[in-house]
Amino acid sequence: MAPSLRDQQPFIPGAGRLFHSPKKRHVNNVNKAVVRDAARSLEIKRLRKRLEELENPVIPSESCDDASAMPEDVEMAMGTSVDDPGTASIPSATSDGLHALDEPVTSTPEPADYTSAPPDTLEPERKRRRTTHRADVVSMHSRWKALLPSIVEPLLQYLQRSSGTPVKTCFTPDHRCSSPQCAQRKQDVTLLFWDHYESHDVPYCHCTPLTHVLISSGMFPTSPTQPRIAVSIDLLEFYFALFERSGDAVTALARALRNYYTRRGWRVLDSKVSLEMLGVPMLDPFRRPLGFAIQWYDSVRVLISRTVDDTIESARQAIAAHERLDEPAVPSMPSGVSCGTSTPPFITSRTLPNTSKTLPIPPSDHLPPSEAPSQMPPSSTPGVHHDPTRQRRTQCSSFLQRRCPACFGGSAWGRTLADGGDIVVAVDGNFSHRHLRTSGEGLDFYNPEYFVPKAKVDSVGTRIDELRKSNKKSKRTYVPKVPDEAVDACENGHEAANEQKAKTNGDRFDDTGIMALVCGHDIPIFLANIDTPGEQLKYAIFLIEELFTHIPDDAVVAVLYDIGCVADRGNGLLVYNPRLRTGLGLRDGEGVERLWSRLRVFIPVTRTSARSRRIWLIDRQVQAIAEEMLNNLGLFLVHKMNRGVIEQRDKAREILNRVAVTEAELREQWSLQQAAQLSVSAHAPARLKKEVDAVLALQNDVDRVEAALEAVRTQLTDGGPSPEANTILSTLEKASRDLSKRVDTLYVSLNVGTSFPELKDFDSNFVKILILARDIKCNIRKRVTAQFLEYDRLDRAAGGKDNPLGTKLHQHTRKAISKRQPSILTAIRKFNNYCTMLAAEAKKHSIPSTFPIPSPLSTDLAKLRDDPNLYDDVWISPLPHQGRPRWLEEQSVREGIQALLKVDRCNEEEARLHREAHNMCAWFGRELAATKLAMLTFGSMYLR
Question: Rounded to two decimals, what is the model's pTM?
């Protein structure tokens, strides 16, 4: 064995030279050499040809039944079509069901074959991933965009003809040519059905192109000009129905079709790989053709849907004009349109095929931001400033009414926030829907309906940065309900809206998440693509501004933004918690989380898809979710009334009857609790903590000096004092008096008398311990609550609702609990020591009995979970003369307050549900009238 290379290295003193061990070059599929025998390949080829000659060939019948019933082995050519790059071409089936070639092959090999065309001994080298689009891909993309408007009519004719009838199992070309001079041609096309595939010579001519013949016959082409593969339209419709439930599954469908075909006798073989591998089954022959068919068939569906919306919008505007003018106003027949405002970017005209009628396009004021020409209605000034010259809006935009008629279908606006406002929406972001930079951009083929434009979002971010840099104070005076001290304590305790915290790797991901705005019924309204590492404020601000541009000026909106606050104090929840705030009813603002739950299946798919395809997948899935929730909106209101209002209100009233406390007393105690917990003095210890620490340090110095003086006095008494000793003793006593004065001066600088008038006469040591006890209890409460949440995760795992037992994450949670538990117990013991010291100081300095002394906490976490003393703050002010308040002392009063608030929220929710049901019924009447008028007036085939 050869000596090690490390031994051959020269000696270098010190740390030495950095040595890297040589890496062994592994042989993989990329650089593996495959040796083939040319003679054996030619001999196999000759024998196969001889076998074909000996067998009796079976001539395939041109009838439908023969073509669909005979299993065939079709050879898939690996060459690419000019019209459809990357799409495998499939020649027609052979007559005998065996292998066939595109060109005839002689039975005996010629000698020149051994020298002129030797087989390759190496597999073709893998191509590197393209970073730019090829010219043929761009050309095919443009041809698809030009083809889409013309295939709408044959598609609708087939859908109308096949509606309510079983799917046909045979293929009959629907070629109709009225011009006798037109030369008829035929193209061999492989047709993919759900249970088999066939090869047919499809006739076509100049006036009826091949794509129109295929679509009229129920097959969708995979190429815009001369397709060689077509997919059943009924199969594509089934795929999109599956897509709405399970997500994008093109690869799964392609593999499933290939396996299913093989099991039923329709094998797919390859004919253009090598001479030896002639007739090898293809692994994935249908993925790329199916991908093209699914992508562009959905584009046709979007075109039809938006055309129908535009037609109904025209009728809707005619009805509105009739109501305003109070005179007959029949909409005129559309005369023409250039580029509709709701037209996807790949369509240049909304003209109906083979008709002279075109559809009118409503103004951008009635369309969502992605459908308007500028992607958002223009604003005169930055921000949500309404143009005084424009007509006053009395209703929400029609697209908002179509998305949620219960929220936006009303006509009465101007309710105050105390009454719940007019509209309740929720905003939240998700950083799981990331996109890898290496996945590429992709060609834009879809104009999203829910995603707002990036340029508008960036402009809002620029405006926010300019306002922050200007440091201009707002002219409006707003008195916050939550003290600034509580807000400061919460400022660094939340995850969302923290622009400085990077949640993803910006170098690896170009799109880092999604921001969504949903209505009170969890229906998505707008989406924003997050392309910054942190969750910046511009996304939420723009979504809110965009909403205000489409609603009346006097509409009042309550926005719930879940920022995931994990601060140690929850006093801000007394004002902002929807369950405690008057007017919001039972709306919790968690609708966005429920939307993320339904979109989680797209996280791995969209992460590696092209950027444009990612937007298409998410936008189309969100649209499917919105349509489903719109169809079930009435059931949602009924369920909310029965299960959300009636049941919860009955349970709350049972609690009120059991506590035997009057409603007036409970409301008074709730007001006292809010006043006590939202007072400025309740948050002052956080501001004084630094000064109290300084006082504590000086007090320790005074204690040490006094101990030293006591020791010196003892020594001098035993041995007799000397002049030097008296001098030292006098110096130490003077230093002790100076330190005491400094401590007193610093304590006065704390302004305890100003911040806490009730504590101005208390001993400084008592105040110091009291403040320290309060701070450590807040810390204990936060850590113990987090520990309880981890225990809940373990309990859910035991029940099968979270991570299974024994997984790595589950074990990590158990280890984290065991590591943090000793520190929590140490903090509890320290707090209990402070409670003992406070009790002793209270007796020593005659603290009034009306001042509440904190109670110790249990060191058993199981008992501490149900201990209400854990959630009580340490009081820093004496109690009133009547003693401890009932909301703090009596558990029944606290339960009664919660039940009373629940009854109030249920009553508010009931009133809101009645109002939303009225809005929905009114919208349905208007929508029914607009749809009927559109069908009678415009006579469009889209509405049949």
Answer: 0.68
